[in-house]
Each structure stands twice: as structure tokens, then as C-alpha cells.
Amino acid sequence: MTSFDFMGKRVAAFVVSILLTLVAIGTLAVQHLNLGLDFTGGTLVEVSYDKAPELDVVRQSLSTAGYQDFSVQTFGEANDILVRLQQKYDQSVGDSVTSALNNADNPVSLVRAEFVGAQVGDQLRDQSGLGMLVALGVVALYVAFRFQYKFALGALLSLGHDVIILLGVFSLFKIEFDLTVLAAVLAVIGYSLNDTIIVYDRIRENIRKSQTSDMPRIFNNAINQTLARTLSTSGTTLLVLLALYFLGGDMIHNFSLALIIGVVLGTFSSVYVASALLLVFKLQREDLIPAKKEAVDDELP
Amino acid sequence: MLNRYPIWKYLIVLLVLAVGFIYALPNLYPEDPAIQISGERGVKAISQQNISQATSALEQAGIDVKATEINQGSALIRLEHANQQLSARSVVTDALGEGYVVALNLADSTPDWLRAIGAKPMKLGLDLRGGVHFLLEVDMDAAVTQRMNVDASAMRETLRDERIRYRDNSVRDRAITFSFLNEGELEKAEGELRSQYNQFEFTTRQQGREHQLVMTLTDKAVTDIQDYAVKQNLTTIRNRVNELGVSEPLVQRQGPSRIVVELPGVQDTAAAKRVVGATANLEFRLEAPADAQASEVETFGFRNDPSRKANLSNDVIITGDSVSSASQGFDQNGQPQVNINLDGPGGSKMNRATRSNIGKNMAVLYIEHKSRTRTVMENGKQVEKRTPYTEKGIISLATIQSALGNRFRITGLDSPTEASELSLLLRSGSLAAPIYFAQERTIGPSLGQENINRGVLSVEVGLVLVVLFMLLRYKAFGLIANTSLAINLSLLIAAMSLLGATLTLPGIAGIVLTLGMAVDANVLIYERIREELRNGMSPQQAIHAGYERAFTSILDANITTLLVALILFSIGTGPVKGFAVTLSLGILTSMFTGIMVSRAITNLTIGGKSLKKLWI
């Protein structure tokens, strides 16, 4: 078993965490998130070919013409093609797409070009926000019930830390934030919580077993005992994610990126935010083991 | 003895596995392009005669039919070739005539014995497989008229409350006109209305002996009303699609007056089309007294007996818009009914109207905006011509026994299907304007084949990496973990198929991610076993203690995550909901396989034997 002094370096870790969180909040406030087609809407162009074209050739010609973030699909018959673009709708977009696709042996005509609204309504946005808050509240209650309220607070702050920094990275580097990334953020919440609870569980077990009140030592022991498990699990998860990131193509690129960042953050925060905060909250043995004195007091007349 | 399961535990594990494998099985069979026929309103059943009519028409048009079937009043015609699907639909629509809904469909080809036990494959999402695409046109003129009728009705009420007498009232184009006998009444009316209705321009004129107040909607008000109508319809249609239980649909605005609905391979496209495009609404009106002025009376027929008619007042007490919730039920005679709850303002309006009219009759009007579509040849091209019309029929006319509150029920519906669809429509909110189907197509996948191939490849590589990692790190126990991982995957697929989940590429990545995380349970247990071995326990004791002590950690960690997933499921919509389903199912199956199945395998192979050393 390893015996690293994790808690000894907690001040340095706090500084890093606070700095990252501040930077993330700053960039989110200043340049927001780079929301994708799902949230903003875009432009839809329907064109009709004389003969059914190869879809990959269509995609190729759009790329060559400098378009980014588009989707191409057949629409009813194989020679009708639907192109969705990220950019805002304007009058000329239909013609410029048509001319980009036109070639001599398979002429293209424009059927329609129109703006399309967001796929995600305000309703979904509001409801997801509300859902997230309720979910966090219920989790806090459960942790407070199974462990103690200081643990609940630690778990909540560590979740907030992970989500804010993750969103901050997407905002800072202007990486497109679409529905798949939203799903990834939700998965990160699940993962990070999982990790935190495993470490908490061991801390609780060790506090109950041990005779000392030297909290940093108990914590170090617990984290070292779960370290092999933490590395194995985040290792397997990261293996999957790296495969998705490098081989998976555009569609799941940002999804896997969000999860890679999230898994790293979640592993870090379960030790240095969730657990280290318990020391800040002055967790005592008595918080987990009800003091015997009170029981005696009750029996007094 | 340590690490032995009683026989019934092995049997339970075996039973779950068998059920899981059977329900995962339909995913191995491909889908057929098909068209689906059902009767309008869900009333008219499709007969064998309809089918032979349709197939002979298809034969004449040179379209190859693979198979036909009738299922609960709707028929499915499977086709050999996907590219003939569109022409097949127009051929069948023309052959059958009015009264039938003909929709495009992708039918699964699950064998009968599997379908008999309710097994069905998972649907592939819009990105992987495509689906059906409906383009709905919002009737912008009707949006304005509908709104003006509501305004006019409210104005009449204001005038009556203020005891201002008007002779006549009309709504035409974009103007509401009131006629008065003298100028004094007109001025009083204008003063009363001007402050409340600033979206109108007020003018007065004299015509013969009548003084008229003409209120015309401003251009800005018209655009506002229309924009609101499209947005409101968008919300309503989103709700309806969600109520249909289609996961991963796409509903978005397209252009100024249209709404796109894309559904991934829905089973019952005809029902989807009926519900998405339905414009049914209700109006509650009092029966007009015998001495009422002709201008204040409208005559309607009964829906189930058009020859019977009744005179109803012009004024609408409330419409279906005031309904806050609705559910389908049956009355004591077994007739279908819809139970309705009104919102606050609707309830008090209803109460006020019924309180002062006890002993009189109140009617429930069923309103449907429809359109006839005919394909005509124009300049050598096929063009679809559409003529909109509105059908209004009384479904019930009953004496008001006592003042009504905000809960009551509606009877007089044709069938349970109609009752359940009406309650769905009332629940999901009303349309601010009628809508029409402007276009229906099947669409191809939005992702390119190359993109799909890469996604699938990456998922496979990820999975292989996890399997290798577990083998290298936990050796013999890694083999057990991998076996339970494979079982986990098929259980997850079975559960998702049973729930009718839709598979998208990010969804697949999510499944693989849950698998990556699912090994966590085994990792926790094995690390604990190793630890106990180091502490000097015997192999059997270490296995026992490992499973025992890791259990609380696993339980706590999974229950918290499950809580998050359940709440996201109950509150979230659309994609958030889909993700929550995958996550919660993944947690449940991985807990079962991680704890029960892997333990069963361990117990079965090495449990109770005397072991010197564990190969872990």
C-alpha cells in the first residue's frame, strides 16, 4: 500500500482550486459558452440534384468551400439533400451553398433556404437548471442522512467545483457546447459524486475503527487505501474516453473531451476538495460516533 | 461454508440472464421500409379489403410489396425497396381516398415468437438511422382571426357589464366593428375599450343612422400575434411529442411560419402524425334562449348525429386553453369520458357562468381544423393543393344542475382512443393557430457513414481496452469481471429495448462509459480482497470479506448517482431525459452484475474449495 501525505499538501491544492474556479467564473461571465446549433439554431438549405450524389462528395465540396459544422442528409428521395449550417441565416446563404455544390455533370438547384430555431426550447433550459438544483439538494440530504451534514457540504462544493471548472474550460477555449456536451456534464456529476462517496465511505469506516483523533492521518490512510481503486476505475474510464476522443470522429469529440476533463477533475476533487474540506469544517470523531455522555444525561431525573 | 450460494440464488441469477438475453435478441434483426395505414380519429378500423385495394394499386404502380399485416385496426405494408416508399404512400393515399391516415414507417422484423412476449429492438436515432420528417405550416391568418374573436368576445362582455348598448358587432379582416344607436353610447364604449386594447387603432364613422366604432389591429400587433402563435405552437407540439414517449425527437422552428418535427423510426407513425397534427379543441357555450337576437346565435349539429341541431350563444365561456390537466376514464356505463381540471381563471369563469344559469343547457363543442389535400398535375409537375376547413360539432348538451367548479368530466366521445387522444391534446396545451402538414419525408441519417463507422470503431476499441486492463490487473478475477461486464451489456440493451429507448451515437458512447464505470464495483471488491489478503486472511475469508465490506461503498455511491439520474428523469425533457434513462439503467444492471453475478461465478468456480493462493 502507498503512503503519500495527501493532506499535507492541501493548502497548495486549495490555492489551485480557488484560482481555477475564479478563472472559470470570470471567463463564463465575460465570454459565456460557445453554444452549438442545438441551442442557437442556424440555417437549413434544401437542394435538389439531377442524379443522386455521393453524400461524402457533398460534404467534401462544402468543406472545400469553407463551411464548418454542417450536417448533410438525404431528404426523401436520394437526390434531395438537406444541409444544416451553424451560421446565422441571411438572404445569400442558399445561393452560395448551391454554387459551392454545383458541378457540370450533376447540376444542383436550390429548393429552399430558411432559418431554423433552436432544438432546445427555453422550457428545457429552465427545467434542466431546476432539475440540477433539485438533484443536488436531494443528494445533499442523502449524504447528510447517511454520513453527516459536513460531508454533504463537502460533496456539494466538490461537485460545484468540478462543473464550474469544466464549463470554464469550454468557455475559455471557445469549444462548442452542444447537447452531447450537456449530457457529458451530467455524466461528470455522476462520476465525481461516485468517486467522492467511495473516499468518504472509507474515511467514515476508518474514523469508526481507529482510536486516534488525528484526522489528517486518518484521511491520508483512507485515501491511500482507496488509491489503487481510484486509479483503476479512472484508468479504465479514461482508456474508454481516450479511444472515443482520438478515434470517435467529430460527433463525440467534444463529448469525450468534456468527460476526460471531468474525470480528471472528479478524481482530484474527491481528494483535495471533498475530503480536504472536511478538515476545514473541523470534522470530529463525535460527528460520526454519537457521544456516550448525552445518553447518560438523558437518564438523569 | 464460506462463499457458497444457496441454489435459489443461482436460479435467480440464471433467470434474469435468460430473460435479459431473450429481450436483447430483437436488436439482431434489421428493419424494413414500410407504410402504415390507420383510420382518422382512431375510429375506423382497417379491413382486409382496404389492404387488397392498396396492394393492387401498388402492384399496378410497379412497387414490390414484401408483406402486409393488420394490427389493432391499423395496417402495415412492408416494401422491398426503401426508394419506393414515397411513391407508395401517394399511391395508397389516392387509392383509399379520404378518412385514412397514411404514414411512412420503418418496421422492425422481429420474429413473431419474440414479438408475442413483447420483445422489440431499440430504435436507432436520427443521427444514425434517420427517421420521419414532418413539416407543419402554421396558419398565420387564422392565428389573427382566432385572437380577434377572443378579443371581440371579451369586449362584448365589457360593454354588457358597463351597460353600454350596442346594436351589432362584427369581426372582419383585421377590424372589429361595433355599431351604436347614438353618439353618447359610442363615446362611452370608446373610452372604456381604448385603455384596455392598445394593440388596436380606433376610428369612428357614421353609416346611415348607426354610429360605428372600428378597431383595426396595428401591423406590429399582427406580427406579434403571429410570432406568438408560432412559438406557442412550438411549445405545444414539443409537449405532445414528449407525451408520445418518442425519445430523442427533434422539434424546431423553420422559417417564419413553419415547424419541423423529426421522429426517429417511430413504431406508430400514423398515431404520431394524428397527435402531432391534431388541432382538436373544446369550447363551452350556453344554449341560446329562444328569444335571442339572430346575431348572437350560432347553430351547430351534433357530432354523432348531424341531423340533430341546437342553437348556441355566440359567447364562449371557456375553451380547452383553460384546461390545466386532463385524463381519460370511463363513466358508470362503460362509456369513454375525459376528466378535466381547469386552471384558476378558467374555473372562476365557469363558476360564474354556470351559477347564474342553473336549469339552462350548456353545450360542449368539439372543434377540429382540417384540410383536404389533393395531388393535382400543374405544368407537368405534381403539386399538392390544400383547402383548409373547420369542423365544429356538439358532443354533449346537458342541463346545468348546479354551479360547476374547476373539476368536471366530458362525455359523448366516440371511442376510448378518441378520449385518450383528446385528453393528451388538452394536457399538452392548445395551439394558438391551426397547423397543416406541409410536407412529410423520410430523412437519411444526419451523420455520414464514415462518422458512424469511426464512432462505432472507437467504442469497440474502448471496450477492448477495458477488457484487457481488467485481465492484466486482476488475472483470473479479471476474467470473472469481464464475463459479468458482457452480461451487463446485454442486460442494459435488453432493458433499453424494453423501455423503447432510442440509440444515438452519444448514447452509445454513454453506454460504453457506463461500462467503463461499471467495472468500478468489481475493482472495489478485488482491491478489498487484495487488501485483506495482505492483512493475512485466508483466501476464502478474504473473498468473503472483500465482497462484504465493499458492499456499503458500492451501495452508497450508486444510490447517490441513481438519485441524480431519477430526478433528472422526472424533471428534464428530451435529451436530458434520455440520458437519465441510460444512466439509471446502467447503474442498476451494473450493481446486479457487479455484485450478484460476479459473486455467483466466483462461488460456483472456487467457492468452498481449499485454496492456497488467489490468482488476483
From TrEMBL, chain A:
Residues 98-282 form the Protein export membrane protein SecD/SecF C-terminal domain. It is a multi-pass membrane protein. The keyword Membrane applies. The keyword NAD does not apply. It is found in: Cell membrane. GO terms for molecular function: protein-transporting ATPase activity. GO terms for cellular component: plasma membrane. It holds the Pfam family SecD_SecF_C. The chain crosses the membrane at residues 12-30, 128-145, 152-173, 179-200, 227-247, 259-281. InterPro entries: SecD/SecF_arch_bac, SecD/SecF_bac, SecD/SecF_CS, SecD_SecF_C, SecD_SecF_C_bact, SecF_bac. Part of the Sec protein translocase complex. Interacts with the SecYEG preprotein conducting channel. SecDF uses the proton motive force (PMF) to complete protein translocation after the ATP-dependent function of SecA. Forms a complex with SecD. Part of the essential Sec protein translocation apparatus which comprises SecA, SecYEG and auxiliary proteins SecDF-YajC and YidC. This is Protein-export membrane protein SecF.
From TrEMBL, chain B:
It comes from the Bacteria. Keywords: Cell membrane, Membrane, Protein transport, Translocation, Transmembrane, Transmembrane helix, Transport. It is a multi-pass membrane protein. Residues 325-354 are annotated as: Disordered. Its main location: membrane. One of its GO terms (cellular component) is plasma membrane. This is Protein translocase subunit SecD. The keyword Protein transport applies. Belongs to the SecD/SecF family. SecD subfamily. Residues 230-287 form the Protein translocase subunit SecDF P1 domain. Residues 438-602 form the Protein export membrane protein SecD/SecF C-terminal domain. The chain crosses the membrane at residues 7-25, 455-472, 479-501, 507-529, 550-572, 578-602. InterPro entries: SecD, SecD-TM, SecD/SecF_arch_bac, SecD/SecF_CS, SecD_1st, SecD_SecF_C, SecD_SecF_C_bact, SecDF_P1_head. Residues 305-433 form the SecDF P1 head subdomain domain.
